[in-house]
Amino acid sequence: MLRLQQRWNAPDVRLLLRPCLGRALRHACPQCGRGRLFERWARLRERCEHCGLVYRREDGAELGSMYLGATVSQSFAALVCFALYFLTDWSQGLSLAVGVPVVVAFCYASLPLSMALWTAVDYLTDVSNREWWARPR
Ligand SMILES: [Zn+2]
Predict the structure, then answer these.
(1) How confident is residue 7, by pLDDT bands cut at 50, 70 and 90?
(2) Distance from the CA of 105 to the center of ligand 1, in angstroms?
């Protein structure tokens, strides 16, 4: 009963997509847009220092960002393979010597973005489910 009383009228999540996406791209809190998401490289803070939104609520909450990052990285790796195969006449050794570091660098560079995007998706899901801790601002 108490849980039902804590629920609230959620806004249309579609209206929150653009601001939450922008905040994720800036590595800012999806709820208030003021707090920073990361303590350091790819290390998510426990909660927002401005609005108190908890970013890491449970073990395994970052699993979605891992899937998102893996999907984007594998797509990028496929793109690099096709580009090296069709646009160059390089040997396999040279293609691997160039392609592997490019893909690894991309994976490393895109990790915080996938974590930020997943945090925004997690937040939007909470807003959609009218969870009491998610209050759009
Ligand atoms: Zn915040």
Answers:
(1) low
(2) 30
Q: What is the pTM of this model?
A: 0.81
Q: How far is the CA of 17 from the centre of ligand 1 (A)?
A: 16
Q: Give the CA-trace dihedral at 121, 21, 100, 91, to 10 degrees.
A: 120
Taken in order 130, 134, 135, 137, the sign of the CA dihedral is negative
Nearest Cα to Cα of residue 38 among 30, 27, 49: 27
Rounded Cα distance, 72 and 43, in Å: 20
Separation of 40 CA from ligand 1 center, angstroms? 17
**Ligand 1 centroid to residue 29 C-alpha, Å:** 5
